[in-house]
Every structure is written in C-alpha cells, then in structure tokens.
What we know:
CATH superfamily of the largest domain: Divalent-metal-dependent TIM barrel enzymes
Order of helices and strands: EHHEHHEHEEHEEHEHHEHEHHHHH
Number of strands: 10
Strand order of the largest sheet: 8-6-4-3-2-1-10-9
Amino acid sequence: MSFEPTRNDLFTFGLWTVGNPGRDPFGHPVREAQDPCRIAAKLGEIGAYGVNLHDEDLVPFGSSAVERDRIVSDFKKAMEDAGIVCPMATTNLFSQPIFKDGAFTANDPRVRAYAIQKTMAAMDLGVELGAKTYVFWGGREGTESDACRDPREALKRFRGALDFLTGYCEDQGYDLRFALEAKPNEPRGDIYLSTTGHMLHFISTLAKPERVGVNPEVAHETMAGLSFVHGVAQAMECGKLFHIDLNGQRIGRYDQDLRFGSEDLKQAFLLVRLLEGTAGGARYEGPRHFDAHAYRTEDDEGVWEFARGCMRTYNILRERAKAFDADPDVQEILAMNTDADLVDFRAGYSKDRGAELRAMDFDAAAIAIKGLRYERLDQIMTEHMMGVR
C-alpha cells in the first residue's frame, strides 16, 4: 500500500514551517532563507495541497506598495504553477518590537490601533491569495507581571479587536472564517486564553460567534499537560473546529513543533482516528496543516524529508485507524460496553422521565464487578499501531 500524499489528503504547510532556517534562542540560522516561490514549487512536487502564511512570511515588513504587489503577483503565479492553493492566512503580531507588550491587548492605544490596522491589511492579502480561514494566535497577548493590567481589561480589548475585524470582514464582503489559536505560555510568561476550552467560551461572548471557531495545535495543548484529542473532540462536537495545527511535542517542554507523530504516537493515532471518523463519528473536512519544522541538524534536503515524513505518518496512521475500527475484536468489546440510555436524557427532563428513573432498581455491586476489557482493547490498539494485526 502506498502512503504517498495526494492533493485529496488536504495537507498544508506554512511558509514559516518548511522555510524555518533553524534559528533558535541560542543559535544563529543553519539554513539559507528560502524564497516563497521556491517553497510553493517544492510543496507542489511532494504532493501537498496548499501553503499558508503570515503577512511577513511573504511580504517583508516595511515593503512599499509597489514591492508588495510584485511579490504577491509572483507568488500567486508560483502557486498556480505548482497546483497548490492558500487555504489559510494569519498576521504576525509578535515579531516586531512594537508588540513587546502585546498587540490587541497592549496598554498603549497606539499599539492596539496599529495591530488592528496591520491585521486588516493582512486580511486583504489573505483574501487576495484565496484564503478562506483566518487564524489569530495571540503570541504576545499576555504578561510576565500581571500587575501591569487587569486581565479582564485585556479580554475586553481582545474582544473589541475581534468584533471590529469581523465587522471589517463583513463590510468588505470577505468569505472568511476566523480561527482562534490557544497557547499557555511562550513567548510571554502567561498567555491570555491559554487553552482551546478557554477559546471556546470566549467565542460565545463575541458579537459574531458564528463566524469564529478554533485552531487547536498539538504542541500548545500538550504544553499545558492536556489531552489534545479531547480538546479537538470538544471543538468538533460544537461545530467550531475551523482549522488544525499538527506537529509533535514532549510534555512539559518549550514549544518544539516537531515532526507530526514523532512524539506520543498513541495520541497521534487517536487524533487521526478522530479526524478521519473511522470509529463512526463525523469526519473533519478541512485542511490538515503541519505547523512544524525540521530539526536544526538538517540541510535543505532534510527539510523536505521532514515534510514528506509528516504527510506519510498521517496517512499510515489513517490506515491503521481504519484497520483498528474494522477489527471484529474491537467491535465486540465496544458493543458490549455501549448501549442506549435506559431513559432518554438527551430529550431533557420531564415529570414522567423523572418518575421512570426513580422507579428503576439497580444492583450496584453486580454492575461494579463486570470487567470492561479495556486492557485488551488498548493492547489491540497498540498492536495495530505496531502493524502486527
């Protein structure tokens, strides 16, 4: 069986991912900066569906309008020649010194206004390139010293910025959905709205919640010590999974952005199973974006081996998940532990249902001694992941 990617797999990479030069806080770049047009061509060669970008990934900060238009025109042609698209765009609101205290939540009103202005221009760019999803990651929206502002005021500022930008989006007639990306820390000591759960509640307070969803990232939820699969499932269950960032991460570490599946293979397997709906749930139909980068040890060839590895691992896990859920032993165990509710709780409370439940007789001791065979289920899953079943 071939696990080589095709356009139908909807795999995407950011210019900042395969274009990462290997710089880190302790060392200089180890690879040459790549031209965005070359990146588009290479992604087309290896079977990717699309390329995503921050504004500054494509158009250098401070470029003139003439230079901006030339760069964008060349990049659009490069994407067309490569047979790829730009499904998602975002704004860099964290690299420039002006954002040292945040962007939308900064105390200086000039910074807040500039951040919104920059985002409006970046949205224009994204739409021009064909993007349908716009991601917001608040990389600098946080603090090292909470004495600097009331966090409630920060949330009000963040809400006001998003409400303004959704208004701009509608006024321009843009067919864009917004996706909010959470992270607990780094580069700030603490980042506001630090998990997908935080974001899902925050969305309910916005003026246009129907236009806003989430963009969960494996590394970010893992940094918080949480199950990424559970966070994604919650987003899917409430119809808010608008985009997703796939990578690898060791728990308790800085944001590593490792090759997808290179760490915690079981969580990666369960995530692919969830996204692909092999257990019977609804399938995620959006792009599978790899927000990761090659090891600093790699040269240019190694970067593209990394990209192929992300896609190949996903496709292998998809086939393993299909085999697992089709396994008769798995189906037997799941069937013996799953049954319809004795009372239809989803229909809500009624006096009759309450009386029906109160009248039921349960032998708690007998129910408690029943073995559920989850050890066997987990071992079967392990064997499928290892390719021996």
